[in-house]
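Side project, low priority. Logging it here so it doesn't get lost.
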Amino acid sequence: MKQVLIINGHPDKQSYNYALSEAYLKGASKTDAILTQINIADLDFNPNLKFGYRKRTELEPDLLEAIEKIKKADHIVWVFPMWWYGYPALMKGFIDRTFLPGITFQPIEGKPMPKKLLKGKTARIIITADTPKWYDSLFMKSPAINQFKTGTLEFCGISPVKVTYISPIKGSNAYYKENWLGKIALLGEKLK
C-alpha cells in the first residue's frame, strides 16, 4: 500500500496553502493509500542549523517524528508559497534541520556527489505565488523551484519531482481559487 505524506510549509494556518493541502488530502482519501501530514507551523523546533554540518544539533522530538514520516513515505507532497523567489524561513529551517548527512544523503569521501538515501520516493511540489509563471521562469529562472526540486529533493534521490505552479494568488477571485482546489483534489485522487 502506498504511503503518502503531505507537508505544508506555510506558517499561517489561515492561508490558501492549507486549503490546497486539505484538497489534496480529500482527493487522496478516496484511494487506499496510507496518508500522513506534517504542518511545519505545528512543530516545536529551532529552525537554525546552528553548527552547520560540523556538529549535529540534537534533534527535537517533532523533527525525529517528521524524519520517520519522510523515510516511510513513498510519495511526498510539498505545499508552500514562494516569497522573495524562495520559500518561507520556517520551511527552510525545517529542511536544514531534517535533510541531514546520514539521514537523507551520505557524503562519500573523495567523491563530489553523495549517496542518495531517499531513492525510490517521488514528490509533487505545489507552489503558490503572485509572480506570473512566465516571469518566474523566463526572467528569474525559477530559483525557488530549482533550489528545492534539484538542490534538495533530487539531490537526496527523490525522483521524479513534479511541480504545480499556482499564480497569481493575490487579487484572484473565489472561482479561480475553487478551480485550483478541484485540480489539486484530482491530483490527490491520482496520487500524483
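Brief comment: The domain at 3-189 is CATH 3.40.50.360 (Rossmann fold).
Revisit when time allows.
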